[in-house]
Structures are given as structure tokens and as C-alpha cells.
TrEMBL record:
Domain of life according to the entry: Bacteria
Transmembrane feature ranges: 298-322, 343-373, 393-417, 438-459, 471-492, 513-534, 816-839, 868-890, 910-939
Membrane topology of the entry: Multi-pass membrane protein
Keywords assigned: Cell membrane, Membrane, Transmembrane, Transmembrane helix
Coiled coil: none
Localization (cell): Cell membrane
UniProt name for this protein: ABC transporter permease
Compositional bias (Basic and acidic residues): 84-100
Residue ranges constituting the ABC3 transporter permease C-terminal domain according to the UniProt record: 303-421
Pfam entry (one): FtsX
Organism of derivation: Streptomyces drozdowiczii
Residues covered by region (Disordered): 79-100
InterPro entries, per the entry: ABC3_permease_C, Membrane_comp_ABC_pdt
Length: 951
């Protein structure tokens, strides 16, 4: 019989066997298809989420041929894509250039529409909200692709606007509602809901040109109390007269007039470098490139490497169980003259058939699910996909990978089936074989080598070694699984019947249990690796974030003396509409000399100043901000650098954000209530000091011998007659030594406050004070509705005040990592369910024996549940350990990069924590095994008909 004929027969037998055992075949197909589905969906999502350059251009200029804008530099030179430009002369002009008359710059025959934005406050269903209003003809075809209508109609008259869906949701409005621009009093009707495909979270309004800014400016001109609008630059969307659009010569002509142009035609067909004037004068622009984040690249390399291993492992238990269920058929093949190679061919044929079906099903289902959940994923990513990016070559590789998976997974069972004697196959006896002693020892050595490779790659900054070492370590752990499973039987000696039998069954049938545990372990390892890396990255982001206020507080502040008179009404609004917990502290600003609302002292000291003089020397000057800081940083470890950065001398230099008054060097006037409400300092001695008139210093680096030096420059504003009377003559400088109460070092990081000065002490020093506002302790950050209600109340009282809150860290993780986490979690749950289902199918003979000896139905159900629980829990625990290896190694890569940057910039933090995702680990270690065990017990039949014994 030829090789082709033999394989054709083997494939025919495998196909018939698959159709005969539909349930088991479906599980095998699902086992192969599940990881293929995940990889397919992740590939399509990743490719689709990254917009092509053409799609990015459409998001910027819509369907127009070009966009013109005046950058205010006079004649310029630009790159073809419009991202970089410079003055044509390369010099600062002697006088500001005149605005560009765009209509004179446009090529002949073009059609153009203007676009201009202005920040404004508008009424909402809750109160008043700040937003951006853009004047552009949204109904024009040139806006298509940049602004999409999702409901209602575009505005047709000056009294109509459209709003983004994000704005409507935050404002509690809908199509048909009215909004009023508070400064101009003009009312507009929302006729439609739109979205920006490039920014689905944008909260904006769109009006017809001249509908908002012009009436507002006219009112401000008539009424000086109305603030004038501050619109941004005007952009022009242009449609060319011919098919060529706006060509490079048109761009060069516009540059001579001072206009910057982004042209679709030039973007798609850029001119040669010899025709770009900017490159002749600034050759460095030709070398500008953008690079992806090293963190994301390292994470992707490692996750993809572990996903490939996971795909190979997930189908292993399926074919191991399938080969056992078909052992009688394989025995009959031997009795008919089939040799061992033909028996192996039948099992491998099953892998080829089911692997092919699983690969095709996985790719097709992944594509279908991505298309179905596309709106959800786009909302998650924050922008629309240009289209589903299908790369046939990549999808073909994924499908081939699934096919090869079937063959690899069937390889070991095929060898085992080929070695079985015909008698064992026909009688169903499995025989007794002593476990290999070499395999676990080899596995432990490989595990150690893999961990060392991954750690070495991490410390050396080589993400490829991290990926390779992680895979090697997981392979070594796989080799140890049979021994680990064998030890499970010894754990059940004192347990009740069902869990004891489940543990002994797992140990007795290592050939079935070990592959099932390996499958779950592989899936969980990927999830834990991603979750650990993400948790650590978020912790690093949180550490780098410098809050404007203390956590759990908000601040109500007044902009000037007139607004300060309206503080009582504003306080009442805050206390009524926000989740204030009862804690409130009033604060006042303090300054020396004139109050001219300047952020800095001018040459003549015309505004006055007030500052704390920081002593020099050890404990006062930050070593990382002095000469020789780079040499010091080179000798410090990450922990030593972090500890030094947290000292009062350094934290004040690094964490300088937040201030209640720019003219007082973070000195505020307050009482003991400020300590508990804002500083979170529960210290009766500090409260007593304030009552006695002694300032409380929060940063001990400014104190020397229990005193601080307060330097004040008393002067006057020449235009303010009142202040000139108070401070006649030249500027007067005073220096006072004040005894202070020094808080503990941990309070040096308090945002916005360096020292609390009692009111009587400020008056004694001849300083000026004025009520600034209040700080409150709140149960949660204000919601959109709460902010809008308070803003409306403040506006009704006269305005000039605002509520300040912490915005929180900006970077909350990568979209790519979030998508990978989603699919890894799906694979984890699916793998646990399928592998435990296969374990139950392989143990059907044991369940039948239980029924034959009269075991109660509860024992049968509980045994089935505990069998699944053992497989899932063991796999989850081992997978958690395996997943920590690449995550820790990748964080070592990040640490190396952070240390190198810190040694160049000593004041930059090198903090690179490793944070375990306890919520994810707890979910995987508790919820998934319990769910698998519960479902197995629930779907196990209590009673079954006894089967006839074979043979």
C-alpha cells in the first residue's frame, strides 16, 4: 500500500471516528478553535485600531482636499505632511506679521468653508458646563469623515447646533433640547447628535459660522461687563477646482503668504526631497521618526510567544482523551494486520482533521465576533476603526498554526497508541507503567534555566531573551506537572470521600490529568503575565502623578476680591450639591505690598512678594539638584533614589505642583480646621500652635533651629492710589524670623501648602490677607451633574469662583494591553471549562462503577465536581507562578531603562514597582475553579444505565 493510500485511509477512518463521537470531537475542535479565535480577534483588533495615515488625514481634514491655517509667523517653509514648519527667514521679525488674507491665497476656483472654535459655558439639564463650541458648516460634504451625524439633523440656521453624544450624555440633554451660552445669553436648539470618529469622548457643540462668536463679541462691545470671546485660529477647509486638488506648487505659494497647508494630494504623492525648501535649510527634519513604546513592544513580544505555546498545549488533553476513547478501534486495526505506523497515522489523521476544522472555525468565529463587538471595542479604544483590517497572510499563518496544533497535540497520543499491545487495546486495560524519574529532574533544571534567562534578559533590557526564557521556564514547569499531580493523591488521606477519590483519580490517571492541568496553566499564565505587567505599570503611573489637592478633598476658590464677597453663596451651593462629609476649612491668601494679581515680581518690585528662605546645607538642599547630582545618581540604587526623592529637601523641588496663591510661596492663612480637613494631620499640638499664633510648617527642610526666615518685599502698584498711600516711597524689604511648629516629614508632600500662617500673625507682620475660599472633605470626586449644578449656582450669584478637583493620573494603561487581557481572560475561562469537561468524559467508567455499587446520586455529582475542581485549581496555581516570570522580567527591562534615564536626569524618578494583581489572581484562583466544578456537578447525571462490559 502506497504512502498516499495509507494516509487517505487513515484520514477516512479519522473523519468517520470524529463524526461518530460528535460530543468529543466538538470538544477537541473547541479546544483548538478557542486560542485561534483569540489570536485572530486580537490580530484584527490590533490592526484595525491603528489608523492608516490616510485615515488619520481624513480624521483631521474630513473629505476636503486641504486645510489652510495662519500660524502667525509670516512666510514659512513646511514639510509635505504639514506636521513641521519654520519661518522662511529663520529669524524673529522686527514686528508681528499681519494676518493672512486666506481668500487671496487660495488657488483660483476653489471652494472653502471656515472653522473656528471658542471655549464657553452653556446651560445643561443639571446646571452649567464648560465646553468648546466650533463654528463650521457641518452639513457640508467637506466635513464628512471628520464629523458623523448619528441622530437628528445638521443645523440649518444660526439658532441651531449639534452636539456630540458624549456632551449630551454628560449634560443630561437630548436632540430637541435647548442650550444657552451664558456669556451672550443666546439660546440654541440641538437639532442633531454627532460623533468625531477620531475622538468618541469629545464633549463639543457645533454651530453655523457666525452663529456664536459674532453675537457674543457684539454684546461684549456694548456691555463692558461681558467678557469678550477668545476664539482660536481660523482654519479653512478647501475643495479644489479640478481633480488634481491642491498640489505642491499651491502649498509653496501659500507658504510665501504665511499659510500652513495640509493637502491630501501632497500627502499621498509627496514631492522629492530636492523640491522641499525646508529640507535645504533644515536637513535635520528629514531624520524625524516616531517610535513605538518599548514597554508595549516588550509586552507584545512576550505575550505572543506565550500565546503560541498556549495554542500548542490546549489541544493536548483533548487528543489524549480521544485516543483512550478510541483504543478498542485502534486494537481492531491491529488485529486486521495494521502495523504501529498505521495506528499512529490514524491518531495523527484525527489531529489533522480536527485541527483543520478547529483552525477554520477559530479564524471565522474570531472575525465574526470582532465584527459584532466592533462598536464596543471602538468605544473602549476611544475612536472608530477606519475599516476591519484583514491581512490574509497573517490570518493564513494563524490558521496553519491551528492545523499544526492538531498534529502536535496528537503526536504524543499517537506514539502511546502505537506502543500499546492489541490485547490491552481490546480489553481496555491501561496497564501500569512507572513514572519517569528523569523527566521531573530535567523539568526542574529547565525551569531554573528559563527563569535565569528571563531575569538575565530583564536586567539586560533584552525583551527577546525575556520571551524565550519565559517559554523555556513554562516548558520546564510542564515537565514537572506529572510529579506534582502524583503528589495530589497523598493530600486526600483525611478528606471526605468525594474529594479523596478525585485527588487519587487525578494521581492515578496522570496521562489524562497532566495535559488538562497544562492547558489551564498555559492559559492562566498569559492572563497573569498581562495583568501583573498592567498593574505594575499603573502603580508606576500613580506614583508619578502629582495631585493638585489632597486625596478626598475639593477646593472652592475666588479669583479676585469681588468674587471673594460671593463666597457665602458659593459655599452654600457646594455644601448642598456635593458629597461634602462635613469637614470644611476656610483659607485666605496672604501677600506683601501691592496686590496687582501678578505671578511674578517685576523689575521695580511693583507687585510685592512673599517667600520662605530655604537654608543651605545637609537636610535643606536636595543632593539631586546640586552640582555632582549625576555622579551621585550613578551610585544610587532605585530604592535609594526613591528614598532620597521622598525626603523633604527633595520632594519640595520635585513635587512643586499645586498652589492656592501664586504670590505667597505656598503660604496660606488658616486655622486648626485646615489640619484635619485638608492636611489630614491629627495632631493636637499643631492645632494648639495655630491657636497660639505659631505657624505650622509642613516641610521641615525650610526650618533651622525651629525657626523659618520669611522674606517680604513691600511695595506699591503705581496705578493703585490706595496702595500707594499705604506704601509710599521705594520698595521696602523685610526679613522676619518666626518660630514654627514643624510637622512630620511625611506631610511635606501636601499639595499647594508649605506653611499655614495664623491670621493674627499675618497682621502682626504687616501682611495683607483676603478670603480665598474653602477646602472640603468629600466622600467621592464630584460627578458631572454635581459640577454643573454648583457652576450654575455660582454663575447665578455673580461668578468669579470655581471648584477645583483632582483629575487623577492621565495614563491608565495601554489599549493594546487591555485588549490582550480581555482575550486572555476569555481563553482562560474557556480552557478551564473544556479541559475539565474532557476529564469528566475520560472518567465516565469510574462514574459508572460508582452507580453499579450503589453510590448515592450526590456522590456521583460531587465526585465529578471535585475532579474538575482539582484540574482547574492546580492549573490556575501553576499558571499564576508561570505568569509571574515574564511579568517580573519585563519590569526589570523597564527598571533598566528608568535607571539609565534617572542617571541623565537625577530628579526624574526610577520607581518601577512590581504589583501583583490580587483581584485577577483571586478571580482565577477561586471563581474559575469553583465555576468549573459547580458546572460539572450540575450537568452530571445522577443516575445512568449500566453499560455492558466490553470484551
Amino acid at each position: 500500500m502506497s504512502l498516499f493510500t495509507g494516509w487517505r485511509a487513515a484520514l477516512r477512518i479519522a473523519r468517520r471516528d470524529a463524526l461518530r463521537a460528535k460530543g468529543r470531537s466538538a470538544l477537541v475542535v473547541a479546544m483548538i478553535a478557542l486560542p485561534v479565535l483569540g489570536v485572530t480577534a486580537a490580530d484584527i483588533t490590533y490592526r484595525s485600531a491603528e489608523l492608516s495615515p490616510a485615515e488619520e488625514l481624513t480624521a483631521e481634514i474630513g473629505s476636503a482636499d486641504a486645510v489652510y491655517s495662519d500660524v502667525g509667523l509670516g512666510p514659512i517653509q513646511q514639510m509635505p505632511d504639514g506636521d513641521m514648519y519654520d519661518r522662511a527667514s529663520g529669524k524673529e521679525p522686527s514686528e508681528p506679521p499681519k494676518p493672512v488674507d486666506m481668500r487671496a491665497v487660495f488657488p483660483k476656483g476653489v471652494r472653502a468653508i471656515s472653522e473656528q472654535s471658542v471655549s464657553a459655558t452653556v446651560t445643561t439639564s443639571y446646571g452649567i458646563a464648560s465646553t468648546e463650541i466650533t463654528e463650521v458648516r457641518t452639513s457640508d460634504r467637506m466635513a464628512r469623515g471628520r464629523i458623523a451625524l448619528v441622530g437628528g439633523a445638521f443645523p440649518r440656521s444660526p439658532g441651531e447646533v449639534v452636539a456630540t453624544e458624549a456632551f449630551l450624555e454628560s449634560a443630561g440633554l437630548r436632540v430637541g433640547s435647548d442650550v444657552t451660552v451664558t456669556t451672550s445669553g443666546e439660546k440654541y436648539t440641538i437639532t442633531g447628535a454627532v460623533e468625531l470618529p477620531a475622538d468618541l469622548k469629545a464633549k463639543q457643540l457645533y454651530a453655523e459660522p457666525g452663529a456664536v462668536i459674532a453675537p457674543w463679541a457684539a454684546l461684549a462691545k456694548r456691555d463692558k461687563k461681558v467678557p469678550a470671546p477668545q476664539p482660536g485660529e481660523t482654519r479653512w477647509l478647501v475643495e479644489g477646482a479640478g481633480e488634481a486638488g491642491i498640489v505642491w506648487q499651491d502649498v509653496l505659494a501659500a507658504n510665501k503668504a504665511g499659510a500652513l497647508v495640509t493637502s491630501r494630494q501632497v500627502f499621498e504623492n509627496p514631492p522629492p526631497e530636492s523640491e522641499i525648501p525646508l529640507l535645504r535649510t533644515n536637513p535635520q527634519y528629514a531624520n524625524d521618526r516616531s517610535y513605538e513604546s518599548d514597554e508595549t513592544g516588550a509586552a507584545l513580544i512576550t505575550v505572543v510567544a506565550m500565546a503560541l505555546l498556549e495554542v500548542v498545549l490546549l489541544a493536548g488533553p483533548a487528543f489524549a482523551v480521544g485516543a483512550r476513547r478510541s483504543r478498542r478501534q485502534l486494537g481492531l486495526l491491529g488485529t486486521c494486520g495494521g502495523d504501529r505506523s498505521q495506528v499512529r497515522a490514524v491518531v495523527l489523521g484525527g489531529g489533522l482533521v480536527l485541527g483543520g476544522v478547529g483552525a477554520v472555525a477559530g479564524v471565522a468565529t474570531g472575525l465574526l465576533l470582532t465584527a459584532v463587538f466592533r462598536p464596543l471595542i471602538e468605544g473602549w479604544a476611544g475612536h472608530r476603526f477606519g475599516s476591519l483590517a484583514l491581512h490574509p497572510a497573517e490570518l493564513a499563518v494563524i490558521a496553519v498554526l491551528g492545523l499544526v496544533t492538531g498534529l502536535l497535540a496528537a503526536f504524543a497520543p499517537a506514539i502511546v497508541a502505537g506502543r500499546q499491545s492489541v490485547l490491552e487495546s481490546l480489553t481496555g486495560r491501561r496497564g501500569v507503567r512507572r513514572g519517569s524519574r528523569v523527566l521531573p529532574i530535567t523539568g526542574a533544571c529547565v525551569l531554573a534555566v528559563g527563569v535565569l534567562i528571563a531575569v538575565y534578559g530583564g536586567t539586560g533590557g533584552n525583551s527577546t531573551l525575556v520571551a524565550g526564557g519565559s517559554v523555556v521556564a513554562e516548558l520546564g514547569l510542564l515537565a514537572c506537572i506529572p510529579v506534582i499531580v502524583g503528589l495530589l493523591g497523598r493530600l486526600g488521606r483525611r478528606l471526605p470521600l468525594s474529594p479523596r477519590m478525585a485527588l487519587r483519580d487525578a494521581a492515578r490517571n496522570r496521562g489524562r490529568t497532566a495535559p488538562a492541568v497544562a492547558a489551564v496553566m498555559a492559559a492562566v499564565a498569559g492572563s497573569v503575565a498581562i495583568a501583573t505587567y498592567m498593574s505594575s505599570s499603573l502603580a508606576e503611573s500613580d506614583y508619578a502623578y502629582m495631585p493638585m489637592l489632597t486625596k478626598g478633598t475639593i477646593a472652592l476658590t475666588a479669583g479676585d476680591s469681588e468674587a471673594a464677597e460671593r463666597l457665602p453663596a458659593a459655599r452654600a451651593a457646594v455644601e448642598h450639591d456635593m458629597a461634602v462629609t462635613g469637614g470644611r476649612a476656610d483659607i485666605s491668601r496672604v501677600w506683601a505690598g501691592s496686590d496687582c494679581n501678578a505671578y511674578y515680581e517685576d523689575e521695580n518690585g511693583g507687585c510685592g512678594s512673599l517667600s520662605l528662605v530655604k537654608p543651605t546645607g545637609k537636610g535643606h538642599t536636595c543632593p539631586l539638584a546640586t552640582k555632582g547630582a549625576k555622579e551621585l545618581a550613578a551610585r544610587l540604587s532605585a530604592d535609594e533614589h526613591r528614598a532620597m526623592m521622598r525626603t523633604p529637601a527633595c520632594v519640595d523641588v520635585h513635587n512643586s505642583t499645586g498652589s492656592f496663591s501664586y504670590d505667597s510661596d505656598n503660604i496660606v492663612v488658616g486655622d486648626a480646621a485646615l489640619l484635619g480637613t485638608y492636611v489630614k494631620l491629627d495632631d493636637p499640638a499643631a492645632a494648639a500652635a495655630l491657636k497660639a499664633g505659631t505657624p505650622v510648617l509642613l516641610n521641615e527642610a525650610y526650618a533651622e533651629n525651629g525657626e523659618v526666615t520669611l522674606k517680604a518685599v513691600h511695595t506699591y502698584n503705581a496705578e493703585d492710589k490706595k496702595n500707594r498711600k499705604l506704601h509710599p516711597g521705594p520698595a521696602r524689604k523685610t526679613t522676619d524670623r518666626l518660630k514654627v511648629y514643624i510637622a512630620k516629614a511625611e506631610y511635606a508632600t501636601t499639595p499647594g501648602i508649605r506653611m499655614i500662617l495664623p491670621q493674627p500673625t499675618a497682621e502682626r507682620l504687616g501682611l495683607h490677607t483676603q478670603p480665598l475660599g474653602s477646602v472640603y472633605a468629600v466622600a467621592h470626586d464630584p460627578t458631572e451633574a454635581e459640577n454643573q449644578r454648583v457652576t450654575a449656582a455660582i454663575d447665578q450669584a455673580g461668578g468669579g469662583l470655581w471648584v477645583q478637583t483632582n483629575s487623577g493620573p492621565n495614563d491608565r494603561g495601554s489599549t493594546i494591553l487591555l485588549i490582550l487581557t480581555l482575550f486572555a481572560g476569555v481563553v482562560t475561562v474557556g480552557a478551564a471549562a473544556i479541559t475539565t469537561g474532557l476529564a469528566k468524559a475520560d472518567a465516565e467508567a469510574d462514574l459508572t462503577t460508582l452507580s453499579a455499587v450503589g453510590a448515592p446520586p450526590l456522590v456521583r455529582r460531587s465526585l465529578s465536581g471535585f475532579q474538575c475542581l482539582v484540574v482547574a485549581l492546580t492549573g490556575v496555581l501553576l499558571g499564576t507562578a508561570a505568569g509571574l516570570v515574564p511579568a517580573v522580567a519585563l519590569r526589570l527591562v523597564d527598571l533598566r531603562e528608568a535607571m539609565e534615564y534617572m542617571r541623565q536626569q537625577p530628579m526624574e524618578s526610577a520607581y518601577t514597582p512590581i504589583v501583583l494583581p490580587w483581584a485577577t489572581i483571586g478571580l482565577l484562583a477561586v471563581a474559575v475553579p469553583l465555576l468549573a466544578g459547580g458546572l460539572a456537578a450540575l450537568f452530571t447525571r445522577s443516575r445512568v444505565a449500566l453499560a455492558r462490559r466490553a470484551g
